[in-house]
């Protein structure tokens, strides 16, 4: 019987023909019934989907973080009679909060890129990421003909400013006006501003991965450090102690990175290579690692505005309900650049036209504005690096990757921004 069916169905056409010609009444009835059942189940499924939140609907079919599906807070501040605050900081009251936000805005609005060839320390000594240092033959962390550690440090710290030997894109600094001086990172002070055992987690896409790497590079001492960060295997992250030299071994803090392009509260790994979304669970680790400072981003892996807004509201709702004592900073998303390898210095104005299609770079500016509003509603901190980095077409990795940056490089600005936020807290 089975053999016979196989033979019959050897081609679809044959199969259909055979059912029609030879199939008995019973078979036809089963097929009819089956089709009807599938139709019914399908409709039920669609009705269930329709009644779900559109953002939740687009989530991968894995179960949510144990807290369950929350009711997304629409506008958490609208009816609040409480004073505005910046959550988990001492900043409280309309005036203090406004001052803080204006100070951050001033970093962007009053600043410009200035060429400065004064030799100085650069955060490239210890940790290597071969992709991000690929464009740098002089300071790549390892390999023949490249230098690292003390040798790299010597190049950065010495020399005649006229012919300072570092890559061109490392010579530009963001200079703001005197109302909001944008300080260079002082490593020891950075450690202290974060504080003993105040563990840090960075969650987001590959750009946040680069920032996490740069962050650790700013903190580790020469000769310390470890090989390579992995976005997949979480066992490598969050286990390295930073600033133990300042606080005493065992009292430093840890820095973890988790890749989650949508900041989704998934409980299981979801990899959608077709749409290019990598989502690792991370909410469980906030507790496990006792995270006190969280740096988030989503944006470069584009989804439409409605989905984007829902995603942010959802995750901020969960965070404010379950982690009220955690400081949260949301970094915005700078676009990549058209023809990046043709540029050798910063732009005076962001690129508006001729952006390559397909990446939605032209949509980032609009979505950043949406994000800024939501971050404000939830009383978190907003880090605008787009204003600065949209002006940095140079220093990207290759002419086929005009989104990521070489490290050290322009993206180190995000770490400097973090330091400057901490100076205000
Ligand atoms: C998610 O992971 C948990 C345990 O880690 C497992 O019990 C559950 O079946 C998984 N769910 C899905 C949809 O894979
Ligand atoms: C604000 O108050 C109005 C009227 O009392 C109510 O309908 C609405 O749901 C409240 N919104 C929030 C976010 O609590
Ligand atoms: C600095 O720039 C900000 C924002 O553009 C402006 O509000 C402020 O008045 C400026 N301060 C000085 C001292 O020029
Ligand atoms: C990039 O290069 C192409 C081809 O040379 C040119 O048509 C386009 O205008 C350039 N775009 C920008 C933003 O420079």
TrEMBL record:
Coiled-coil stretches: none
Keyword annotations from UniProtKB, A to Z: Membrane, Transmembrane, Transmembrane helix
One matching Pfam family: PC-Esterase
Single GO MF descriptor: O-acetyltransferase activity
Transmembrane residue ranges: 30-49
Record InterPro entries: TBL, TBL_C
Protein's name according to its UniProt entry: Trichome birefringence-like C-terminal domain-containing protein
UniProt record similarity statement: Belongs to the PC-esterase family. TBL subfamily.
Domain Trichome birefringence-like C-terminal: 308-420
